[in-house]
Amino acid sequence: MAMTEKQLEEILAQYPSKTQKNRKKHVLVKDSTTENPQVIEANTRTIPGIITNRGCAYAGCKGVVVGPIKDMVHITHGPVGCAYYTWGTRRNKAKTEDPDKNFINYCFTTDMQESDIVFGGEKKLTKVIDDVMSIFKPNAISIAATCPVGLIGDDLGAVARKAEEKYGIQVLAFNCEGYKGVSQSAGHHIANNGLMQHVIGKGALEEAPAKYAINLLGEYNIGGDGWEVERVLKEIGYHIVTVMTGDGKYEDLKNAHVAELNLVQCHRSINYIAEMLEIKYGTPWLKVNFVGVQATIDTLRNIAEYFGDEALTEKTEAVIAKELARIESKLDQYKKICEGKTAFCFVGGSRGHHYQGLFRELGIETVLAGYEFAHRDDYEGRQVIPDIKLDADTKNIPDLTVEKDPERFKLKLSPERYEELKKKIPLGQYCGMNVEMKDGTVIVDDLNHYETEEFIKILKPDILASGIKDKYVIQKMGIPSKQLHSYDYSGPYAGFNGALKFAEDICMSFSSPTWNFITPPWKDEPLLTGTVADAEGVA
Predict the structure, then answer these.
(1) Which end of the chain is more exposed for a tag (fewer CB within 10 A), N or C?
(2) Domain boundary residue, one of 429, 459, 481
(3) If you average pLDDT over residues 399-427, what whole number do you get?
(4) Any catalytic annotation for residue 56?
């Protein structure tokens, strides 16, 4: 079922006039017949009073990008609740050959109290670092600031420098206070800047130890996604230098400069590092998508096309054929249950786009999609970046300017080969989500709870893929909710095995007898409403 402009106007009409004008810029009904490209507003402040699904800058920095690095201890300088939120809800899996160098299962915080807010928390932070070094002896430490730290003015940088001098390891300070940006996207940017400036390129390697060396960027190993992707890539013959940052290691991250190609999975969270690596070391980046069978196949073929090696291409096709033979018949069984159903897909930075293809392979059409914290280029494609106007909030996170490394910069491709490949594969490009959505579907930025309920009543989706915050609200409305931030204790959902697991979980959602005991809102509300006119004076 397609959404009409009239229906959209009726939903927005319930807002005060100023709010209505604001939200209208964040919602559009896809129409490819329009003369001018459809523009959506994104990366702006959520209107006060609206219940949003967004997280804060601290969550984006520590919770998403930095936190999954396993051989570092990550200290949250702030209240315990902030630390727990970014540790207990992400399910970043990690394994290591050295059990003493995997700190993912620990939650470290200074647990700031009222007295620390009054008198300052630098001494307490110093004490926590001392305890960490005494007990755990990590390869490095990160410190992430929360809102009260920024308000009272604790100097994280000074504490970090003293700890580095004392212990001889790197201590990274991230001033990523929650209020630093309009969403967690600001935290991604802060984390990218810090890792690029202080970690990447600090390793001793001058060249990769094996052929076909790649970095996997924007993969956080939720539910084991990264392990499934690595399984396939390694079977083909690629050497993974580092993963940023799911199951990633600080020691590997330092040598990211030796890779021949960077693969970008989550564009929003890691595109800054991808661009800076290309400028500083000459390493191109390729937009990839390992969510869905066909997306995985297309990605594997694109990587092989980049390297242009006949033997690598043959191995790629052999692995694809083997994987398809193993899973296709099983997927067909799940398709019988899913065929003809519809979905909302409102997830994170790239998942709202990536999962539409996997839904489609199961016979499920996405009728509404959007992102919590995207920028316009995530919707409309990177070609709009020069047209994006920088506001005060955006300028609050400065771009890190990098230059060619005089010793390590190396062109991986000739300019001619680069331009030739750009015509075949998404090299240094991302087309955005909007281009792949059908006419009549709804594209919405920073979807809130009121709009969610109203869109559900009109479009009547069979399943809603979203995050942790609205999962139970959706289920109480009689609709299965597939939580795609941390996978509801399931996964992996990436790659070939992931597609199969996703199909199994979706089918379980549809088949659950739970929905027999819950009434969807459109079944106990009138489909038509009206008013009785004043009949006075009528004959």
Answers:
(1) C
(2) 429
(3) 96
(4) yes
